[in-house]
């Protein structure tokens, strides 16, 4: 009988305790991981950064990035690390997925947001999607198909495969694209891979300028980034920022985008 209180406690444990930064949050045959900001009280809703990994990456690998974890925590945000089903994201025109419409991934991201918001104190109106390389490609597809679920998007060193869609669905998004000016892995003009090709970054931006009714660019510099900044009549953000270098990731790029969106009242 002395063990009954312990058993009762375990049976009554919150589902939020079942997963976190070191344990998978299971969604059928998929999963994600989440790290709440340090010192979070468990009740106050916080913004979130959803991070999509690159080719052959993992949610576990994202969570092992101590610099990223600390930076997101310092911002007072939750870090949600998502995971592709296999090595890469199943999105339109991707290698071995030429016929995909991305619906499988979009349903997965919907499920992640629904599940994380149910388990944890996440402010669903302040969620930014970001990712590096292949993860940046996933983010561009989300910006075009799930702009109703995210407040802002920050793709890094990745764009659409082959070509951008003719148009997008849903409300116009706030987006900052960040890329290395001498990237040879995902060049700004793309490169051929198997039966397809990486898209051209400028084509994606031009499509979104038309879609969102964005005005002419204004040059700006921000801590190592050379940017072209555009706004539309409702104040939505579309920025294109280059850094000197190749295919590399720095947590400061995520911080820059998040803080810019927050200062503009978008997060």
Automatic annotation (TrEMBL):
GO biological-process terms attached to the record: polysaccharide catabolic process
GO molecular function: feruloyl esterase activity
Location within or outside the cell: Secreted
InterPro entries: FaeB/C/D, PLipase/COase/thioEstase
Signal peptide: 1-18
Keywords of the record: Carbohydrate metabolism, Hydrolase, Polysaccharide degradation, Secreted, Signal
GO cellular component: extracellular region
Highest taxon listed in the record's lineage: Bacteria
Domain Phospholipase/carboxylesterase/thioesterase, first and last residues per copy: 104-191
Record protein name field: Prolyl oligopeptidase family serine peptidase
Taxonomic lineage of the native organism: Bacteria, Pseudomonadati, Pseudomonadota, Alphaproteobacteria, Rhodobacterales
């Amino acid at each position: 009988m002395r063990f009954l209180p312990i058993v009762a406690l375990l049976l009554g444990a919150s589902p939020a305790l079942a997963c976190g930064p070191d344990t998978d949050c299971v969604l059928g045959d998929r999963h994600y991981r989440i790290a709440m900001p340090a010192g979070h009280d468990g009740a106050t809703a916080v913004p979130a950064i959803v991070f999509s990994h690159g080719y052959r990456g993992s949610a576990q690998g994202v969570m092992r990035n101590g610099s990223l974890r600390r930076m997101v925590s310092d911002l007072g945000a939750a870090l949600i690390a998502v995971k592709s089903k296999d090595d890469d994201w199943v999105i339109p025109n991707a290698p071995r997925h030429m016929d995909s419409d991305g619906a499988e991934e979009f349903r997965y991201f919907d499920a992640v947001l629904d599940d994380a918001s149910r388990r944890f104190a996440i402010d669903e109106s302040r969620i930014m999607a970001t990712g590096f390389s292949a993860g940046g490609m996933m983010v561009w597809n989300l910006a075009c198909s799930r702009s109703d679920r995210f407040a802002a998007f920050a793709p890094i060193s990745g764009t659409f495969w082959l070509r951008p869609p003719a148009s997008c669905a849903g409300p116009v998004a706030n987006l900052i694209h960040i890329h290395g000016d001498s990237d040879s892995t995902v060049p700004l003009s793309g490169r051929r891979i198997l039966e397809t090709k990486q898209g051209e970054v400028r084509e994606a931006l031009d499509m979104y300028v038309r879609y969102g009714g964005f005005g002419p660019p204004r040059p700006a510099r921000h801590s190592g980034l050379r940017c072209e900044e555009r706004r539309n009549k409702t104040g939505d953000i579309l920025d294109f920022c280059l850094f000197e270098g190749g295919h590399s990731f720095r947590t400061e790029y995520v911080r820059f985008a998040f803080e810019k969106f927050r200062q503009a009242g978008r997060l």
